[in-house]
Design goal:
This protein is of the alpha/beta class. The protein folds into three domains: 235 residues, Aminohydrolase, N-terminal nucleophile (Ntn) domain (Glutamine Phosphoribosylpyrophosphate, subunit 1, domain 1); 172 residues, 3-Layer(aba) Sandwich (Rossmann fold), CATH 3.40.50; 152 residues, Rossmann fold, CATH 3.40.50.10490. Helices cover 35% and strands 23% of the residues. The protein has 18 helices and 25 strands. The protein has an eight-stranded antiparallel beta sheet with strand order 3-2-4-1-10-9-11-15, covered by helices on one side. Strands 5-6-7-8-12-13-14 form a seven-stranded antiparallel beta sheet. It has a five-stranded parallel beta sheet with strand order 17-16-18-19-20, sandwiched between helices. α11 links the parallel β18 and β19. α16 packs parallel to α18. The longest helix has 22 residues. The radius of gyration is 26 Å and the shape is globular. The termini are close together. The model has no long low-confidence stretch (mean pLDDT 93). It binds 6-O-phosphono-alpha-D-glucopyranose. The site of 6-O-phosphono-alpha-D-glucopyranose has 16 residues, from α9.
Length: 603
């Protein structure tokens, strides 16, 4: 993923601007960081492995500079070592890069034959050498970049400095995000707008294939050899969202924002009536099937959505992981709707899956959180979730907003197909009104979560079980725990356990059983009995309050009942909070777990 930032302007504080920008981009990777800036004499490079803090300790903030580039790395080619950190310099060129140059190995061999030597294992250094080599024969850097663009295969957003033109910042963008920030006396480049928001909210969004040159007074952009016009857009951003509001971590703050996010996402569609639901959504009744494609937690939201769309919308729904789907024969029916779900709207695999569906001439709907993002722009139809900016790498509020949106689509279908009674609709209105308070009630059960987390933190392997929607929630609960507390855990369809995994259950093995669906509850409860009788320590998360269940568990968390369409939004809260508490006990870096990144723009 990596984050890149760049500055060219009339002020001398380039070093500070680069470091500030990288701070905001650390969510994209934090294996190493580096900057390069022209100090009036030469391009100075400072880089260090590990968190940005390490770089900050060695950078000279008093160095005056008006142009530079910076990078925070999520390692792809080559380990998280200083020698692999960006910027890389070869010959006259210094570059930072986000993405993957897929044909780097062939290019590297050719360049070695031409006399180039490499100090790192990165594909970036190869791109740098290629540009330097092309420059030998053509001193017009814009032409050189155009040629490099034609030769390189893969995804890349690159910021380039050249010793011969130290006042010009060159850029290329292909399949990795890049924007140019614009103010009167200063220009910026960044992987996303918030990185430069404290400097300007005017920006230009680059398209694939764009390249160009930026000076303090001017921007020239090209695509396929032709100069192109560009539009300066205004970013609307609530700076308040960057504030932790007294919470020790963004993740906890975001978990606690869920009642508000629910209201913001659902109210435009369901308020005192269902007018919005009927008028503001496209007509989905014409599709005979739905395919949902996404990555990570968005796939888990899709799995919840599948249950809702099938039960309430009466439409066959399949869920596929984008990284698999994009390389499969899609087998899409002509009248099949393809839904892609993405918080960032920039996930490379999801974007490519979307393009595959579009190439197949299927209608596509994006359920997206980031307005104007690549996936939003590429989808035929878009429904925005209203989770606001999510900063913690492990998603919580964006996930629940995705689940809420899928439930709304299922309900829309149910209404349009006349599958739902007036009484049930009234019940839904009541549920929607009560849900934020019920969420709050669950969010406040801190002592319960802490007690349970203390027990779980002592174990290395934890199992989650559930059926149907509860299985989908189990998968997200398990992922949360893995992501932020580095505890191995697995989610199983409760009925599948007996086909193998039950052999791993022994005295004291923690099993988290999720039981919220009355229809299937007795079956999951039988599976709880099976693990309990083999010694498992069972945490029972349920909306049932039956005395007869008493002996089946060691600990229980009762969650409030609501309409089935919205029940998952309550069930997920204890799972998120428990993962958070376990990670806290284990002293993990909760907002920035190791090896992960928030926005995955490489495949
Ligand atoms: C990364 C994040 C996950 C997220 C996934 C998909 O792996 O760490 O939290 O679920 O990407 O991201 P998207 O932005 O497409 O929802």
């Amino acid at each position: 993923m990596c984050g890149i930032v760049g500055y060219v302007g009339k002020k001398d504080n380039c070093v500070r601007v680069l470091i500030d920008g990288l701070e905001k981009l650390e969510y994209r990777g934090y294996d190493s960081a580096g900057i390069a800036y022209f100090n009036g004499e030469k391009i100075n490079i400072v880089k260090e492995s590990g968190k940005l803090e390490n770089l900050k300790n060695i950078v000279n903030f008093n160095d005056q500079s008006q142009i530079g580039i910076g990078h925070t790395r999520w390692a792809t080619h080559g380990g998280a070592k200083k020698q692999n950190s960006h910027p890389h310099k070869i010959g006259k060129f210094t570059i930072v890069h986000n993405g993957i140059i897929e044909n780097y190995a062939n290019l590297k061999n050719d360049l070695i034959k031409k006399g180039y030597t490499f100090n790192s294992d990165t594909d970036t250094e190869v791109a740098c050498a290629l540009i330097d080599y092309l420059y030998e024969n053509d001193k017009n850097i814009a032409n050189v970049i155009k040629k490099a663009n034609e030769i390189m295969i893969g995804s890349y957003a690159i910021g380039i400095l050249c010793d011969d033109e130290p006042n010009n910042l060159y850029v290329i963008k292909n399949k990795s995000p890049l924007i140019i920030g614009v103010s009167e006396d200063e220009k910026f480049i960044a992987s996303d707008v918030p990185a430069i928001l404290d400097k300007t909210d005017n920006y230009i969004s680059l398209d694939d294939g764009d390249y160009g040159v930026i000076t303090k007074d001017n921007i020239k952009l090209y695509n396929s050899g032709k100069e192109k016009e560009f539009k300066i857009q205004k970013f609307e951003f609530d700076a308040d969202l960057m504030d932790k509001k007294g919470y020790p971590h963004y993740m906890l703050k975001e978990i606690h924002e869920q009642p508000d996010v629910f209201k913001k996402t659902v109210n435009p569609y369901i308020n005192n009536d269902f007018d919005g639901l009927m008028k503001k959504m496209p007509d989905f009744t014409k599709y005979s099937k739905v395919r949902i494609v996404a990555c990570g937690s968005a796939t888990h939201a899709a799995l919840v959505g599948k249950q809702m769309l099938e039960e309430y919308g009466n439409v066959k729904t399949d869920v596929e992981t984008a990284s698999e789907f994009r390389y499969s024969k899609p087998f899409l029916n002509k009248d099949e709707l393809v839904i892609v779900i993405s918080q960032s709207g920039e996930t490379a695999d999801t974007l490519e899956a979307l393009k595959l569906a579009k190439d197949n001439k299927n209608d596509t709907l994006g359920i997206i959180n980031a307005k104007g993002s690549s996936i939003a722009r590429c989808s035929n139809m878009v429904l925005y979730t209203e989770a606001g900016k999510e900063i913690a790498v492990a998603t919580t509020k964006a996930y629940s907003a995705q689940v809420a949106m899928l439930s709304l689509i299922a309900l829309n279908l149910s209404c349009k197909k006349n599958l739902i009674s007036k009484e049930e609709m009234m019940d839904i209105l009541k549920s929607v009104r009560n849900l934020p308070n019920q969420m709050q009630e669950l969010l406040d059960k801190n002592d319960e979560y802490e007690q349970i987390a203390k027990k779980l933190a002592e174990h290395n392997d934890i199992f989650f079980i559930g059926r149907k929607v509860d299985y989908a929630l189990a998968q997200e609960g398990s992922l949360k725990l893995k992501e932020i507390s580095y505890t191995h855990s697995e989610a199983y369809a409760a009925g599948e356990l007996k086909h193998g995994t039950i052999s791993l259950i022994e005295s004291g093995t923690p099993v988290i059983a999720i039981v919220t669906d009355d229809f299937i509850a007795p079956k999951t409860i039988s599976n709880m009995i099976e693990v309990k009788s083999r010694g498992a320590d069972v945490l029972y998360i349920t909306n049932r309050n039956n005395d007869e269940d008493d002996k089946l568990y060691d600990n229980r968390i009762i969650i409030p009942r609501t309409h089935k369409l919205f029940q998952p939004l309550l069930t997920i809260i204890p799972l998120q909070k428990i993962a958070y508490e376990v990670a806290k006990i284990k002293g993990c870096n909760i907002d920035k777990p190791k090896n992960l990144a928030k926005s995955v723009t490489v495949e």
